[in-house]
Amino acid sequence: MASTLAHARYGKDKVRVLRVVRDGKTHHIVEYNVTALLEGNIDTSYTQADNSVVVATDSIKNITYYLAKTSPHILSPERFALHLGTHLVSKYAHIHKAFITIEQLRWTRIPIDAQGHLVDGAQGHPHSFFRDGDDKRFVKVELDASAGKDKIVADVSAGISDLLVLKTTESSFENFVRDEYTTLVEVDDRIFSTSVDLSYTFSRVSIPTPSDAKKLEFAVPEVQAGGVWDGDAVARRARAVTLEVFAGDNSASVQATLYKMAQRVVAENAHVDSVTYALPNKHYIPVDMRYIGVDNLSPASAEVFMPIAAPSGLISATITRQ
Questions:
Q1: Distance (Å, rounded) from C-alpha 248 to C-alpha 269?
Q2: What is the model's pLDDT at position 222?
Q3: Which residues bind 5-hydroxyisourate (predicted)?
Q4: Measured distance CA(137)–CA(198) in Å, rounded
Q5: Nearest to 272 by CA among 238, 313, 311
Q6: Which residues participate in the annotated binding site for O2?
Q7: Domains of the chain, first to last
Q8: Could you tell me which residues are annotated as the binding site?
Q9: Residues in the chain with pLDDT < 50?
Q10: Is 283 a catalytic residue?
């Protein structure tokens, strides 16, 4: 039976990196999980057992660690991903594309005041940190040098995953389709909880070609507010928008709240072209206590709830800039 290799990509997954950047007595840290995959003239490694075209995945891992040590852009996942991908497609003549994914784990300074006391709102300890949430920031970069090593372009998306939120009122769900299959009761007040997955896509950017022999240079162009080179500020705004809208919206539905979130992310970041949210319902069902004469079902009296893991609703949408 005739067959052909339609697509090939390979690389290193789950490269775990913790980097400490020392600025005098003040230290900065980032913890990343990095995936780096390559495409190019590598078909013969599959079809003819020709390893001469293979950049070993161990080498990709070592390059990741070397740049984690030497790159001035390590504290920004967007910039570091672009630096790593640019180096890979620039160094190897037969590699035309690099796909870099970075997942950043949260570390926040412990809020210690000058007297050594834990105080909310304090500036934070210069070298002591704690994990203040399970949500992760992520960046996905596609570096494309197919048109030439001097014509590299990048498509970048970023976002947040696993941001768990819950509100105990100002959420309803009414006036939905009712037919012979409907058992859900309309409710004008309920718990609203979800694990936010947010992804936003930046406008395509051109990447300056490294001019040094080892292809390690990486120059950041002029920073435009709300663009990929402004990624840290965009990430802060997107997370703040998500939390502010969730908390403040008198939600008629998950769909309606989602749309308000996405509209603001687009409006507040001039070079974000599209925003996608996926919001799975985290259901909390009031426990029926009528058998002992206790009202725990009406919205005003519901106080004891049973968490339900599955099945759950899943609401998603993509909002684009006009």
A1: 21
A2: 87
A3: 57, 173, 190, 254, 281
A4: 9
A5: 238
A6: 57, 281
A7: 1-151 (3.10.270.10), 163-205+213-322 (3.10.270.10)
A8: 57-58, 173, 190, 254-255, 281
A9: none
A10: yes
Q: CB within 8 A of 313, min separation 6: which ones?
A: 254, 280, 281, 283
Please count the residues of the chain: 322
Tokens 């203040």, residue located = 132
How many angstroms separate the CA atoms of 53 and 61, rounded? 17
In angstroms and rounded to an integer, the radius of gyration of the C-alpha atoms of the chain is: 24
Active-site residue identified among 12, 87, 97, 271 = 12
Helix axes 254-268, 231-248, angle to 10 degrees: 150
Per the annotation, the verdict on 12 as an active-site residue is yes
Q: Which among 125, 127, 167, 283 is annotated as catalytic?
A: 283
What would the DSSP string read from start to end of 94-144? TEEEEEEEEEEE--EE--B-TTS-B-TT----SS-EE---S-EEEEEEEEE
Preceding amide of 280 cis, omega within 30: no
3-state secondary structure of 259: helix
Distance of alpha carbon 67 from alpha carbon 83, whole angstroms: 8
Binding residues for urate: 57-58, 173, 190, 254-255, 281
| Digit-coded pLDDT (tens) for 245-292 | 999 999 999 999 999 999 999 999 999 999 999 999 999 999 999 999
Spatial distance between the Cα atoms of 120 and 109, rounded to a whole number of angstroms: 11
What DSSP line would sit under 42-107, residue for residue? Answer: -HHHHHS--GGG---HHHHHHHHHHHHHH-TTTT-HHHHHHHHHHHHHHH-TTEEEEEEEEEEE--
Each residue's pLDDT tens digit, 214-232: 999 999 988 999 999 999 9
Given 44, 57, 168, 209, the catalytic residue: 57
Query: pLDDT value at position 96?
Result: 98
pTM here is: 0.94
7 as an active site residue: the answer is: no
Q: Is 288 strand, coil or helix?
A: coil
SS3 per residue for 183-218 = CCCCECCCCEEEEEEEEEEECCEECCCCCCCCCCCC
